[in-house]
Amino acid sequence: MPVATFMAGMFSNDEPILRLLDAGAGVGSLTAAWVAAACARRPKPKSIEVTLFEIEAGFQPLLQKTIDECRSIAGAAGVSFDAEVRHEDFVEYAAASIGDLFASKAPAFTSTILNPPYRKLNTASRTRQLLESVNAGTTNLYAAFVALATRLLRPGGELVAITPRSFCNGPYFRSFRSEFLRSMSLRRVHVFEGRNTAFSEDGVLQENVIFHAVKAEKKAPRVKISSSNHPTEEDCSSRSVPLREVVVPGDPDSFIWITAERSAQRVVEKMRRLTHSLGSLGLAVSTGRVVDFRAKAHLLKDPTRDSVPLIYPGHFSSGWVAWPRPGYKKPNAIAKNSGTALLLVPAAVYTLVKRFSSKEERRRVVSAVFDPKRVECSAVGFENHLNYFHASGDGLTMPLAKGLCTFLNSTVVDDYFRQFNGHTQVNATDLRSLPFPSREDLVALGSAAPDSLLEQADLDALVDRVIFNEMTARAATA
Q1: Residues 313-349: pLDDT tens digits?
Q2: How many Cβ atoms sit within 10 Å of the Cβ of residue 280?
Q3: Residues 434 and 421 sit within 8 Å (Cβ to Cβ)
Q4: Looking at the domain that runs over 279-477, which CATH code has it been given?
């Protein structure tokens, strides 16, 4: 309920007649909070109409009780109240309504409040096909709910939703972001500092955000970015930032940057001084080819004459790959045969990055170097929980690999990554989105970095000295 009350407080519409859409209403908590907030507002609305969608039969008695309580709250405030509960699939309803726009009037909601369901959508599913039929195709049900609810808003209508933060970046949500930012004016984004605080009783693993937007062609010039540990205004910190800092003009990916603190914005500004992409460096990053449960028949606890190393994140040690690992719960090797030939890569120097982390971990981006002089082999298998940097399938030079590793392990990269990545994965796509120093600067960094892992403060100072300070000096000279 504190989250629902927090969300309801973001609405500002003071029209006399308010029409609310609550898609995926559950037991009606969001609607109840919204009705209470609307009836307490000055001036009060004359009438409230709510339309709620919920297909779970077990919620119906409690949902009806919530509606009855909403009617009592509105009546006590002298506000006319009407509610319609639709026991049908919201996507089916919305797609039919939107597809019929040219033949009849579309629903014109003044407000929508959402806690949509999360589920990946198969391209062959009926839900995905319905979304494609109204040009609202997306890969997850929560984004579909937001996209459809946006379409059903009237001009000037408000939307407040709580969803995973994953839509803010990555290729899978690119079309969703583009369409949403085109039709809606983003007004506020709120992020909770930890998954285990506001939603501890629900076991929520995703990093969630709450966002408020208004359906308008003209965009608000500034966006309020706020954060807290709990959904109460008392412990909430916020700042107003220019829209161009949240959505960079001309960005073809339309990433949404959430920088709740000024220090976070300084990190973004610092990293944007780097102008090289991975492709411009002649480098690529791929995900490890060995999915262990699929290759189970070929995995070995300990190496044999006919096997090669199998590297997991657990083999990372002080910035290097240490193999084999005695007593490790994972296999240390994979058989080298015709069945595994496509899973292996040639023995060479590679920079590795762990694919999985969590927001509460000290670091999100963790890198190490694979050196075939330390791990003697003819080929190597990288498990699927790793990403590896390479040069068109070939290995890297040691100075370049060490430079990449040192750069990726720096605090500035970790802090920057956290601004646009809100899920537990560090995917190859995310790494491709990073800006990088020049190849020369990376080689210089790798040459300056010692073989032993530096203390974080010393590592950060080295990255600043070799990359950012050198860039400043070159710019001043130019």
Answers
A1: 999 999 999 999 999 999 999 999 999 999 999 999 9
A2: 11
A3: no
A4: 3.90.220.10
Q: Which tokens go with 308?
A: 């090669």
Grouping H, G, I as helix, E, B as strand and the rest as coil, residue 260 is coil
Q: pLDDT at position 100, please?
A: 67
Q: What is the CATH number of domain 2-260?
A: 3.40.50.150
Query: CB atoms < 10 A from the CB of 448, how many?
Result: 15
Starting at the edge strand found earlier in the chain, the sheet holding 284-287 runs: 284-287, 386-390, 350-354, 367-370, 320-321, 316-317
State phi, psi for 181 to the nearest 5 degrees: -70, -25
Question: pTM, whole model, 2 decimals?
Answer: 0.77
Q: What is the pLDDT of residues 137-184, one digit of tens each?
A: 788 999 999 999 999 999 999 999 999 888 888 778 889 999 999 999
| Each residue's pLDDT tens digit, 334-391 | 999 999 999 999 999 999 999 986 555 578 899 999 999 999 999 999 999 999 999 9
Considering only CA atoms, which of 230, 227, 158 is closest in space to residue 189?
227
Query: Rounded to whole angstroms, how far apart are CA atoms 267 and 262?
Result: 9
CA angle (241 as vertex; 43, 179 as ends), nearest 5: 80
Asked if 25 and 90 count as a contact pair (C-beta separation under 8 A), the reply is no
Most distant pair of Cα atoms in the chain: their distance:
83
Rg (CA), the chain: 26
Decide: 310 and 385 in contact? Cβ < 8 Å: no
Secondary structure element (H or E) that encloses residue 320, with its range: strand 320-321
Domain assignments of the chain as residue spans, ordered by start: 2-260, 279-477
Contacts for 23 with CB less than 8 Å, ≥ 6 apart: 53, 90, 94, 112, 114, 116, 145, 148, 149
